[in-house]
Write a structure and sequence with these properties.
Pfam family, one (chains A, B): HxlR
Oligomer: homodimer
Organism (chains A, B): Limosilactobacillus allomucosae
Keywords (chains A, B): DNA-binding, Transcription, Transcription regulation
Shape of chain A: globular
Number of helices of chain A: 6
Largest sheet of chain A: 3 strands, antiparallel
Distance between the termini of chain A: 40 Å
Strand content of chain A: 5-15%
Helix content of chain A: 55-70%
CATH architecture of chain A: Orthogonal Bundle
InterPro entries (chains A, B): HTH_HxlR, WH-like_DNA-bd_sf, WH_DNA-bd_sf
Structural class of chain A: mainly alpha
Radius of gyration of chain A: 16 Å
Strand order of the largest sheet of chain A: 2-4-3
Largest interface: A-B, 52 and 52 residues
Protein name (chains A, B): Helix-turn-helix domain-containing protein
Chain lengths: ~140, ~140
DNA sequence: CCGAATCCTAAGCGATACTG
DNA sequence: CAGTATCGCTTAGGATTCGG
């Protein structure tokens, strides 16, 4: 990516986190680092929709270039690659939690004028789970 | 727009503000409400790039549906239409300021590993100008 | 196990022309 | 002045196939 000039800092943040799966990726790596296929399966579970391998790789590469995600390749056979959050990635994650709080407030108004809006994970849950992995619904 | 289910509240916020000009529109209407062509000219000035009429109308309609922007039509000839922020729009604007602070911090790291990144308006300026319109660079 | 390469579709954005 | 209507380009995302 080529960074040059922005009207606001907000535009830089948006450029970095805009991508269908990026917010979910960042939040998935918060609890603990994950291997590639582990992350892929996790994303599918929490979002109820499969992510194409090409897309996951693309978005991980971009997040890596933007210093949000760190890629660790163990160079073994068979391969083992682990993805984790950088310090900036952790800050973006914290910001996404705050963003979720704003979103849930907006949803109340939008829902009253339209239809109920459901969130799988509230920002309260996100805060609560910051130090512990979510349990899979077995 | 059809709201249904989201993984996080963050995804709702992103859906609402994602659009090339939406963040700029929201920030432009903060200082004071603006008429259509006034807003159009303002956006072109601060972003150094013209916005297509079709696109501006589209994004304004969407922001109106999402309860971010209020459209006031005076039904006169010639027409006079004024756009302003709703309460939720104001909250989103405040959030964009916070987002700019985060972005400017990220930029320091990205710039050191890449190239310098310039912001036309810092979040400090945004705060300072919340109660007063920006001066045009004459 | 973790990808790369290719092809395809839908949507965002923009240019242009026209209108009450 | 504040829009609509139409068309074309570009890009993000996804399905599929192949490789170290």
């Amino acid at each position: 990516m080529k960074y040059e000039r922005y009207h606001f800092g907000a535009n830089l943040v948006l450029e970095i986190i805009s991508g269908k799966w990026k917010p979910s990726i960042i939040c998935s790596l918060d609890a603990r680092p994950k291997r590639y296929n582990e992350l892929k399966a996790y994303l599918q579970r929490v979002n109820g929709q499969p992510i194409a391998q090409k897309v996951l790789t693309e978005q991980l590469r971009q997040l890596e270039n933007d210093l949000i995600v760190k890629r660790t390749d163990y160079h073994t056979v068979p391969p083992k690659v682990v993805y984790s959050l950088t310090d900036d990635g952790q800050r973006i994650h914290d910001f996404l939690i705050e963003m979720s709080r704003v979103g849930e407030n907006l949803a109340q108004h939008l829902a009253s004028a339209d239809q109920p809006i459901a969130f799988d994970y509230s920002y309260q849950q996100m805060i609560h789970h910051q130090k512990g992995e979510l349990h899979a619904k077995s």
